Amino acid sequence: MTSAQHRGCKVDGCGRSHRSRGYCRMHYKRWQNGTDLNAPPRVVEVVHRESCTVENCNNKHQARGFCHVHYARWNRTGSPMGKGPLPRSEVVRLRRLVGVPDDGPTPEMCKEWEYAEGVAA
Does 29 lie in the same domain as 14? Predict the structure, then answer.
């Protein structure tokens, strides 16, 4: 047991195998970061799920408690239920409410907004 791969970590009571500079992987990382070598190891709870946690969804679990569809929505919008784009009629209603043409702002309006915000040079 003289080879480097069979030596133990040099931190008293560790028991893990040697990785580098006499430390196991965890203690070597702590040594690199300048943190306390004798602090207790972090315990990470791993939860294994079979299906999505969203009500009435039985799709296979992918990540963070969600299936692929709900995870993508959560990642994009912050909610697993997501919010799709506004219907065209709602976009037109909101544009009319603030005085913008139905097909969007004109180039002149954009320039006015840029000057008002101090964006344009």
Answer: yes
- Give me the pLDDT at residue 5, please: 47
Residue among 60, 53, 101 nearest 81 (CA): 53
Are 96 and 80 contained in the same domain?
no
Q: Which two tokens stand for residue 27?
A: 């203690």
In a shared domain, residues 39 and 56? no
Query: Which residues sit opposite 23 in a β-bridge?
Result: 20
Mean pLDDT of 58-67: 92
Residues 57 and 74 placed together within one structural domain of the fold: yes
DSSP state of 58: -
| Pairwise CA distance, residues 41 & 85, whole Å | 46
Backbone angles phi, psi at 82, to 5 degrees: 65, 165
Give the range of the structural domain holding residue 15, as residue numbers without chain letter: 1-44
Residue 19 near residue 32, CB atoms below 8 Å: no
| Number of separate domains in the chain | 3
Residue 30 CA, distance from chain mean position: 24
Q: What is the pLDDT of residues 16-42, one digit of tens each?
A: 998 888 999 999 999 998 989 888 887
